[in-house]
């Protein structure tokens, strides 16, 4: 946790919990100058802690009710090219290089199971993809979260 103190972590918690509050409100709640809050936010951004200010979107109400994790095995000589080709599939919403089963762990969305089958066929037809293994999400019990780690770091600091 090099270079981050309790104030940084308190600010980070506010940003995660209320991203629309704004710098002025963060500085008011933390009882610090607005410039101090802005400087700390800039530091968190430059360090790669704050990656985006985009909202987290639930695609199910937009008609994409199926989510699946797909382990993708790819030809080792074509990793970057295959990943670039896969990005042409709009239903691909996340891809991670992993150890263990497969080379990539991708998260896809689809309107329904039939549509997911079409998406999976598109993945398998992608040049460089050798095989896949899919797991359909039945329900999301815990959304992506970071506050527990921020709280742990704050307690350790």
Automatic annotation (TrEMBL):
Alphabetized UniProt keyword annotations: DNA-binding, Transcription, Transcription regulation
One GO cellular component term: cytosol
Pfam families, per the entry: AsnC_trans_reg, HTH_24
Signal peptide: none
Domain HTH asnC-type positions: 4-65
UniProt GO molecular function: sequence-specific DNA binding
Gene Ontology biological-process annotations: response to amino acid
Top-rank lineage group of the source organism: Bacteria
InterPro entries linked: AsnC-type_HTH_dom (IPR000485), Dimeric_a/b-barrel (IPR011008), Tscrpt_reg_AsnC-like (IPR019888), Tscrpt_reg_AsnC/Lrp_C (IPR019887), WH-like_DNA-bd_sf (IPR036388), WH_DNA-bd_sf (IPR036390)
PROSITE patterns in the record: HTH_ASNC_2 (PS50956)
Matches recorded under PANTHER family: LEUCINE-RESPONSIVE REGULATORY PROTEIN, TRANSCRIPTIONAL REGULATOR AZLB
Protein name: Putative AsnC family transcriptional regulator
């Amino acid at each position: 946790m090099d270079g981050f103190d309790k104030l940084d972590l308190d600010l980070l918690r506010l940003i995660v919990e209320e991203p629309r509050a704004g710098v002025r409100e963060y500085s008011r709640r933390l009882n610090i100058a607005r410039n101090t809050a802005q400087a700390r936010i800039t530091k968190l951004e430059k360090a790669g802690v704050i990656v985006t200010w985009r909202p987290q979107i639930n695609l199910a109400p937009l008609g994409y009710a199926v989510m699946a994790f797909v382990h993708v095995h790819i030809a080792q000589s074509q990793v970057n090219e295959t990943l670039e080709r896969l990005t042409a599939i709009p239903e691909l919403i996340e891809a991670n290089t992993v150890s263990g089963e497969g080379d990539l762990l991708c998260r896809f969305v689809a309107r329904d199971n039939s549509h997911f089958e079409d998406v999976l066929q598109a993945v398998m037809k992608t040049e460089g993809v050798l095989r896949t293994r899919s797991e359909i999400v039945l329900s999301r019990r815990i959304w992506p979260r970071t506050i527990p780690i921020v709280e742990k770091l704050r307690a350790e600091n």
